[in-house]
Every structure is written in structure tokens, then in C-alpha cells.
Design brief:
The chain is mostly helical and 71 residues long. The chain has one domain (2-70). Helices cover 76% and strands 0% of the residues. It has four helices and no strands. The chain has helices at 2-6, 14-30, 34-48, 54-70. Keywords: Membrane, Transmembrane, Transmembrane helix. The chain crosses the membrane at residues 12-30.
Length: 71
Amino acid sequence: MNALIDLEYYTYPISFSLPCTVILIEHFYCRMDFNRCLTLINRLITFWWAQTTPREKLELGKLKSLSLIIE
């Protein structure tokens, strides 16, 4: 898991990075590592927001909503 994060997986195509982020969030959430969850969400949204379609922005918005719940 850490190797994937270290490789900045979120810079790969969003069709890969979005599902990876969801899986990683679930993993770290179960381990109660909430700061890691928030970091993963923030990195993905920050990287992709300016270059996504409206539909993809909706998916990123769902992650942002999740981050508010985690906080």
C-alpha cells in the first residue's frame, strides 16, 4: 500500500486513480488512520479538479463530502 502511495498513483489516469483512492480510503479508515484518508482525498482532488469532466467532478465531490464526514 505504501509503495503505491509513494509512486503518486493519483497522477495516473483518473480511471485508475479514483478507484485506487476509494480502496485505500477504505483500508485506512478501517485502521482508523483518518489523517491518511484526508490526505489521499485532498491529493486526488487537488491534482484532478482542473482537468476533469463534470461527471468526474461529481465523483470528486463525493470524496470531498466523505472527507467532511471523516473530519
